[in-house]
Design goal:
mainly alpha, 3 helices, rod-shaped
């Protein structure tokens, strides 16, 4: 039992088991780090999902759609008037009134017919 060959064999087995245990420890630590990173990413995705769901709910309502259209485009409903707030220090000669509907110019035949009558 106390022979050199037996002790060398037992020492080799202990080293081999120690290396195997250390490899498993490193893998377990790596997996724990990956799990924590995955949980953080999962939480971020859940928050993003919640934000998108709120936006979908907001855009699902008519008021939300109208609000987004008004925010992204300069539009007004028929009968609404547009108000432009101008700084008092700016020159007033560049300001032109905005008409809700473009004026139609009479055609050649309309002018000729009204001139004739």
């Amino acid at each position: 039992m106390y022979s050199k060959i037996t002790l060398i064999f037992l020492l080799g087995c202990c080293v081999w088991l120690s290396l195997s245990v250390y490899e498993r420890y490193e893998k377990a630590r790596d997996m724990e780090n990956r799990r924590l990173e995955s949980e953080v990413a999962y939480q971020e995705l859940q928050e993003r999902k919640q934000q998108l769901q709120e936006k979908v709910d907001y855009l699902g309502a008519d008021a939300g759609v109208e609000s987004e259209i008004r925010r992204n485009f300069d539009v007004a409903r028929v009968g609404e008037e547009v108000v432009i707030i101008v700084d008092n220090d700016s020159p007033n000669e560049d300001i032109q009134p905005i008409s809700p509907e473009p004026e139609e110019k009479p055609g050649f035949w309309s002018r000729l017919f009204t001139w004739y009558h």
